[in-house]
Amino acid sequence: MKNKNKISYSLTESVLESVDINSAIKVLKSKKITMGPKTKQIEAYFQNKIVKTNSLMVNSGSSANLLIFQCLINPMVKKLKSGDEVLIPAICWSTSLWPIIQSGLKVKFVDIDLSTLNIDLNDLKKKISKKTKALMLVHALGNCTDMTKLMNICKKNKIILIEDTCEALGSTYKNKPLGTFGDFSSFSFYYSHHITSGEGGMVCTKNTKYLEIIKSLRSHGWSRDLSNNKSLSNKYKHIDKNWIFINSGFNLRTTDVNAAIGLEQLKRIKTILSIRKYNFLKIKKSLLGNKKYDNQFTILNDQKDSNTAWFGIPIILNSNDKKYKQYVMGNLLDKGIMTRPIISGNFAKQPSIQLYKIKINYKLPNADLIDKKAFFLGLHNIKITNSKLKSLTDNIYSSL
Ligand SMILES: Cc1ncc(COP(=O)(O)O)c(C=O)c1O
Predict the structure, then answer these.
(1) Domain range 18-267, CATH class
(2) pLDDT tens for residues 242-258?
(3) Ligand 1 pocket: which residues have CB below 6 Å?
(4) Which of 166, 193, 196, when mutated, tests ligand 1's pocket best, judged by the most ligand atoms within 8 Å of its CB?
(5) FRET label pair with 206: which of 56, 212, 270, 332, CA 20 to 30 Å apart?
(6) If you write DSSP's letter for every residue of 112-167 in order, what string do you get?
(7) Is 193 part of the annotated catalytic residue set?
């Protein structure tokens, strides 16, 4: 029987607690709702407690990625120039990729490793050429690759590393947070992520000069809020000091309402991560330990030496039947269990790639396989109950 209106297991159950709502209401009542002191507070919190590196809040993870590439091509930086090549794993999000092209750079896709769903380091080595200047690494589903090997490859080939950490807030590799390995990183606080501010994200970089440039790009290209604002107003005495535009710009700012909600959630990130971990392990054990389990599917382990803050629960079906994934996902939906592709599947196959005539004259067999055989289940921020776990497990087995 079709049961399309009743969701029994959703992709997301983010929890807005009363402290989050009260903090947002306080901002609203102050009548100063645009970017201001709350944004500064969440940035300081993120910088001091989460990544220990310079952090700026923006209105989304996508905006964070855009600002990173716009900083790299900026005339004040010139680390990348038109036509330079950036590598990216084929299992990525739309706005992991498009900021590269929107910044006049070329992309080349790298295949993924089936045991991590993250970049395949052998294919990465093969894809590096003289034109390769940067790597947009995507920590897919919160998991990561062998970061020691990856850092060596980047160092050896003088590759600028950008970490798209939008799905991996709280994941660590050898006890070091993902998002702190590269030259830049981005985080997302969208509704379905580990914490949410509604919409929101963070852009991080160790380089304080780049941070200042991103700060300016985030807000119209003006000089307000920059640490050298005073000397700029002395230099440009003929221009009103609040209206000096030193760079090109966007408006990618957040609001203090979003910052207030995000900050309260960040304060309880340890609890959120431990609940998500509990849910991941409980569901995995219930599925793999079930007497009906007969190798129908695989659920991944954390990358060696890492503690993965899973974004969702990846299920890789082992059947070679091309129609099996659609069959299973359809059955699950009928039972109210929501699923989705691993990020967006093999992005090289998306119509937007043809629209922009991006040439792909190489194969991405593992990304194709993931397209054909894998999907993920959501992971919630509230502990799964035994009855929900039982019904989820039973429904999954009756969908196979
Ligand atoms: C890997 C990855 N990068 C970037 C983004 C963009 O984040 P946002 O939705 O905050 O723009 C997402 C969104 O889900 C993502 O999964």
Answers:
(1) alpha beta
(2) 999 999 999 999 999 99
(3) 60-62, 93, 95-96, 138, 164, 166-167, 188, 190, 201, 343
(4) 166
(5) 270
(6) B-TTTSSB-HHHHHHH--TTEEEEEEE-GGG----HHHHHHHHHHTT-EEEEE-TT
(7) yes
